Amino acid sequence: MKKRVLIADDDTGILEAMQMILEDAGYEVLTTRDGQTVQDMKEDLPDLLLLDIWMSGMDGAVICQYLKSQHSTKHIPIILCSANKDTQKLARSSGADDFIAKPFEMMDLVNKVEKYIN
User: If you average pLDDT over residues 58-78, what whole number do you get?
Assistant: First the structure.
């Protein structure tokens, strides 16, 4: 059974690129442009979450803190993604497992996902 990755980003181009890269690497990939959907997830939980920090209307770091505080979702590895120069600091302070700075190399994305999902 394929491992499931959920990507949350409000940039359609980034969503499509990340989805293609991870599907080529053998993952089942779900996408959303809505941070509220991620925060409200209760069932069919992914094996890993790639979460943009700056989504329209929602702060990915706040969503990460919330998910890491909930019994049902705290075990899910979360990798924050951003072009912000403070991505590493934001990831650490929000409880994320790791971060990816945009722009990123395809193999860096695959390697980070494999590190936490396998």
Answer: 94
